[in-house]
Amino acid sequence: MTEDVLVVHGGTPLEGRIRVRGAKNLVSKAMVAALLGDTPSRLYDVPKIRDVEVVRGLLGLHGVKVTDGDEDGELVFDPANVESASTDQINVHAGSSRIPILFCGPLLHRLGHAFIPDLGGCHIGPRPIDFHLQALREFGATVEKRPEGLHLSAPNGLHGTKFALPYPSVGATEQVLLTAVMADGVTELRNAAVEPEIIDLICILQKMGAIIKVHTDRVIEIQGVPKLHGYTHRPIPDRIEAASWAAAALATRGHVEVLGAQQADMMTFLNIFRSVGGEYEVTDTRPPKLGDPGQEGGIRFWHPGGELNAVALETDVHPGFMTDWQQPLVVALTQARGLSIVHETVYEQRLGYTEALNKMGANIQVYRDCLGGTPCRFGRRNFKHSAVIAGPSKLHAADLVIPDLRAGFSHLIAALAAEGTSRVYGVDLINRGYEDFEAKLADLGAHVERP
Ligand code: EPU
């Protein structure tokens, strides 16, 4: 077995072209949605990442036959024989991902009961599931917390409800969608999240026969139907991965074309990228014609030379600046002249990774105050959730330990941007969300090796 460490010889600009596939944060939910159909579903462009493997394993345990389709990245789900799995079998997946919580509604519809193991996911704060459980209870589910996990049942079926989320949580919105589509009656969800991945999940559910209206002001109305069938779907591309490579291009003074990246889903990122001083060009897809093989579109990102500018930004729910874009971009901000301010308003503890950047020569201070923007719910609760980045700083190599997925990618970018040879430990965590990242690094000319 290779040691879980990557040796990174930094200081070389990343240059070249890579491709992103279906968004991790949609694909895993689309896989869960397949449980709701009474005929097979087909999903394209599924990246080979750990989260997909976890969901595939869980679906298999529940009797869903998952097979590879003809096209690379195509998965077919046959839910004809959905069945209960033992808690021991399910618990093998405990702690590996957040997705199991989304099995609640579909399993309650199909089996009348569900067991959910202890959740995993990135350690970026407490990540409670209170909104999920509150929503499920509103639908009529009973939830029993036991040491081994959650036991749910719906002795009287699930019924539509009117419900407002205390905060527009992505996962809780998905929980409501996956439960309401087959609940008896109409559900009205207020203060819902409306991320592009959620809209794409709604598209999938609509293909399956659901009736879902997205109103203005974050209100989603779902009219329950008794039956859904399978879907065929090509998911939206991964806008977090695309932005991560864009930030890597900027931090290493390189030039990276991300095939598959979509402008519409990344507008807020692109505005900040341009304000920092990065350049980009959107290349549209040219469909194949006789004598012309066509060309896949994407976005080219590059550092135009000279100095970068400091910016103030605040992470937020869609259409704001995504929290998952924050960590990779901060590495580039260490190279900008002046004081940049980052106010993290989605997670209370997502700035811990800045310590590693400081160890490499960055000058980042974190604060409990809501800096640079509107007061958020964390200011009153005394969390260090704002950062001031003074730059430019010359980054030097260091030994780094990856704490979570997105912070992990930012450590990697920092090591690539730094002078000298860094050792990045725990890199396998990056495989949770970035397909073939080592092959992509090689394609971009990075000097990295396994010891
Ligand atoms: N929250 C609660 N109670 C709940 C649910 C959420 O207090 O029951 C809070 C969270 O603690 C957090 C905020 O609400 O402070 C937002 O959490 P949300 O539910 O929106 O996040 P999530 O669904 O758990 C997904 C992505 C995350 C991404 C967030 C925000 C997946 C699998 N994960 O998480 O992605 O950061 O939405 O966009 O879709 C990643 O890909 O690395 C990642 C962490």
From TrEMBL:
InterPro entries: Enolpyruvate_Tfrase_dom (IPR001986), Enolpyruvate_Tfrase_sf (IPR036968), MurA_subfamily (IPR050068), RNA3'P_cycl/enolpyr_Trfase_a/b (IPR013792), UDP_GlcNAc_COvinyl_MurA (IPR005750)
SUPFAM superfamilies, sorted: EPT/RTPC-like
Pathway annotation: Cell wall biogenesis; peptidoglycan biosynthesis
Keyword terms of this UniProt record: Cell cycle, Cell division, Cell shape, Cell wall biogenesis/degradation, Cytoplasm, Peptidoglycan synthesis, Pyruvate, Transferase
UniProt GO BP: cell division; cell wall organization; peptidoglycan biosynthetic process; regulation of cell shape; UDP-N-acetylgalactosamine biosynthetic process
Residues the entry annotates as binding UDP-N-acetyl-alpha-D-glucosamine: 98, 324, 346
GO cellular component: cytoplasm
Residues the record lists as 2-(S-cysteinyl)pyruvic acid O-phosphothioketal modifications: 122
Localization per Swiss-Prot or TrEMBL: Cytoplasm
Pfam families: EPSP_synthase
Active site residues per record: 122
PANTHER family linked: UDP-N-ACETYLGLUCOSAMINE 1-CARBOXYVINYLTRANSFERASE
Function comment: Cell wall formation. Adds enolpyruvyl to UDP-N-acetylglucosamine.
Protein name, entry field: UDP-N-acetylglucosamine 1-carboxyvinyltransferase
Source lineage: Bacteria, Bacillati, Actinomycetota, Actinomycetes, Micromonosporales
